[in-house]
User: Which sequence fits this backbone?
C-alpha cells in the first residue's frame, strides 16, 4: 500500500498541535503559564494568617489540641501503671489548668465552641481525655489514694485539721452567698483533696462531693448555682462532713 506523503501545510499544522499539547505528567521543566509566575514571588515570605490576632487564635487552638492528645495518652499510661501516681497527678492537674486557662479567652472559646464540636472537626478519638476534662480533676483526686489509709491510721492531726478547715471554709462560703463556679469549685477541690489524704474509706456523702465537683466543672466561670442548688449543696456537704468525721472514730 503506497504511503501518503505529507505536504508542507500538513507538517506545519501537526507541528503546531504538538507544541500546544501539554505533557500528561508534569516534569520539572513543564510549561508554566506566565500568569502564574507573575503572581508568585519565591523570595516573598508566605503569610499563614492575615493578622497577629488570627495567629494568636490559631496558636491557642493548636495548644488546646495538643493538651487533649497529651491528656489522653497520660490517662492510658496511668491505667497501665507506666507512670508514678505523683507524676500523673501533677501532670494531669497542670494540663487541666492549662486547658481551662486557654479557653477563658472569649475569642478562643467562641472558635472552640465545645469539646465535642472540636473533636468532630479534627476527627479526634480521645475518650479518656474527654472523661477527664468532664470531671475536671485527676483520677487520683476523685478516687482515694491507696496511701491515704496510712496517714489516717497514724492519726495525723495536721491532715485531719486541714480537711476539717476545708469543709468549714466551703460551708461558710455558701452561707456568705458565694455561688459562682469560680468561687466554689476551687474550695470544693480543696475539700476532696484534703479528705483523700486522711482516709481511703468511701464514707457517706463522699460521692456527693465528686458529683458536685463534676456539676460545677460543667458551668462557665461566672455562672452561679441557683438558690435551690445552693441549699441542696449545703445539705450534701454537711452530710459529707458528718460522714468524714465518722471515719475518724
Assistant:
Amino acid at each position: 500500500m503506497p504511503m501518503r506523503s505529507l505536504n508542507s501545510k500538513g507538517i506545519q499544522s501537526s507541528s503546531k498541535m504538538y507544541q500546544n499539547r501539554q505533557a500528561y505528567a508534569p516534569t520539572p521543566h513543564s510549561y508554566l503559564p506566565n500568569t502564574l509566575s507573575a503572581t508568585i514571588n519565591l523570595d516573598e515570605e508566605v503569610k499563614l494568617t492575615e493578622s497577629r490576632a488570627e495567629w494568636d487564635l490559631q496558636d491557642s487552638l493548636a495548644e488546646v489540641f495538643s493538651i487533649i492528645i497529651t491528656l489522653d495518652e497520660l490517662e492510658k499510661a496511668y491505667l497501665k501503671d507506666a507512670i508514678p501516681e505523683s507524676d500523673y497527678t501533677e501532670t494531669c492537674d497542670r494540663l487541666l489548668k492549662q486547658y481551662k486557662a486557654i479557653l477563658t479567652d472569649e475569642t478562643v472559646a467562641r472558635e472552640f465552641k465545645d469539646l465535642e464540636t472540636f473533636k468532630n472537626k479534627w476527627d479526634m478519638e480521645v475518650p479518656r481525655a474527654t472523661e477527664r476534662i468532664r470531671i475536671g480533676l485527676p483520677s487520683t483526686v476523685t478516687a482515694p489514694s491507696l496511701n491515704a489509709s496510712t496517714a489516717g491510721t497514724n492519726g495525723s492531726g495536721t491532715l485531719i485539721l486541714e480537711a476539717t478547715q476545708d469543709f468549714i471554709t466551703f460551708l461558710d462560703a455558701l452561707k456568705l452567698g458565694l455561688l459562682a463556679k469560680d468561687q466554689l469549685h476551687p474550695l470544693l477541690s480543696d475539700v476532696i483533696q484534703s479528705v483523700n489524704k486522711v482516709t481511703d474509706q468511701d464514707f457517706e456523702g463522699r460521692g456527693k462531693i465528686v458529683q458536685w465537683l463534676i456539676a460545677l466543672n460543667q458551668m462557665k466561670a461566672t455562672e452561679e448555682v441557683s438558690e435551690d442548688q445552693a441549699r441542696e449543696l449545703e445539705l450534701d456537704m454537711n452530710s459529707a462532713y458528718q460522714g468524714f468525721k465518722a471515719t475518724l472514730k
User: Anything to note?
Assistant: Confidence is low (pLDDT under 50) at residues 1-6, 21-33, 149-155. Residues 115 and 130 are 8 Å apart (CA to CA). The two ends are 116 Å apart (CA to CA).
